[in-house]
Each structure stands twice: as structure tokens, then as C-alpha cells.
Amino acid sequence: MPEATIIKQRQDMVDSHQTFSLGKEGFATAFSDRFDRLLPFLERRSAARQADLGLDDGDGLGDLSLVARTFSKEIVPLWRWKPGSNIAGGDRGAEIRLGQQYLTPALRTDVDGEGDVGFDVAVPCPHDDECTGRAWVPAYNVTCLFRALNGDLDDDEGIVCTVHGPNHADDQDDEDTPGIEERDLEAVHG
Ligand SMILES: [Zn+2]
Biased composition, Basic and acidic residues: where in the chain (predicted)? Predict the structure, then answer.
């Protein structure tokens, strides 16, 4: 066997032994890390929160912190305010877009006239496909956004159309809940 080959083989043996030792060392380090992992974890989460709130002298999320709190932080990069648009009747309108699909949320600053802050999201008008108004349904969290886009909220009783008013308020011949409507009528007419 050529001498160079023997030297190479020896070197490989030494290298692999060292690798193995480092591996053991790494394992020992990982093992000791287990004892104090919660504190650094919380420290990172705390720093991220302070940054989001602008408490670290940065800009923070600003008016997007409510978006992040309501819909999760993953929504924030998709969120665009629509300044100057009048889609939300004077409230701030926005758009959540990914690819060709989008939703139109609005920030309500006086929910139910109580001064509460919350979001609505635009859905198709349940009364009229050709409706010239805009129908809104409350969006409390990211699940509401999913259901709104998915069509699950298309006949939600929380929908209010700017032209037709609340869903199910006056359409007593609604096919979806004939039993309830009939019982109500019977109660009224004795
Ligand atoms: Zn309508």
C-alpha cells in the first residue's frame, strides 16, 4: 500500500474519532441546556412583544398591532390599509390579499354604538346578488376570515347590508329556518 494512502487512512480515523468526540460534547451541551430554556424563551417572546408594541424605541406594528392581536401576526404582511377609500362608510377599510384571492376588512371604532373597536369583513349580500350596497359580517379572529372567504358565513345572521339591513331581520319566508319562523308567526297570531 502506498505510504500516502496509509497516512490518509490514519488521518481519516483520527478525524472520525474527533467528530465522534464533538458529537458527545454537543450532546452534553444540549442536555445541560434543558435546565434553563424557559427563561431565554420568554425573554425572546418578551422582546418580540415589546418590539411589536413599539416599546423598544422602534416603530412597532403601530395600527397593525390590533390586526396582529385579532387575526395573528401572520396576517400582518398581507394587510393593506386603503386610505381614502369609502368602502367602509367612513371607517378604515383594508385589504387582505394573497395571490388572486382577497378579503375586504374594515376597522370599526364604535361597535354597537358602545365605542368598542373591532373588525368587520365584507361578504356577498345575502338578499341580492346584484346588490349595490355592501354586506359586512363581524370578524373576531382568523377563523372568521377563513369562513368568510370559504363562503361559510354567506348566510350568517350577523350580516348587515348597507342597503338591505340585517340578515334575517324581515325575511320571514326564509327557506333556511322555516320552522322557527312559522313558530314565531303562530305565537304572534295565537
Ligand atoms: Zn344588500
Answer: 180-190
The structural domains of the chain, with segments of one domain joined by +, span: 3-36, 76-166
How many Å apart are CA 32 and CA 28, to the nearest integer? 6
Instruction: Please write the tens of the pLDDT for every residue from 12-41.
Output: 666 655 555 555 555 555 556 567 888 999
The Cα 55–Cα 48 span in angstroms is 10
What separation in Å is there between the alpha carbon of 2 and the centre of ligand 1?
A: 89
Measured between alpha carbons, how far is residue 66 from residues 52, 69, 84 in Å? 10, 5, 20
Dist CA 45 CA 51 (whole Å): 10
Distance 164 CA to ligand 1 centre (A): 4
How many CA atoms does the CB half-sphere of 43 hold within 13 Å? 5
Question: What is the average pLDDT across 75-89?
Answer: 90
* Cα of 87 from ligand 1 centre, angstroms: 14
C-alpha–C-alpha distance, residues 162 and 137, integer Å: 11
Identity of the residue numbered 18:
Q
The pLDDT tens digits of the residues spanning 124-151 come to: 999 999 999 999 999 999 999 999 999 9
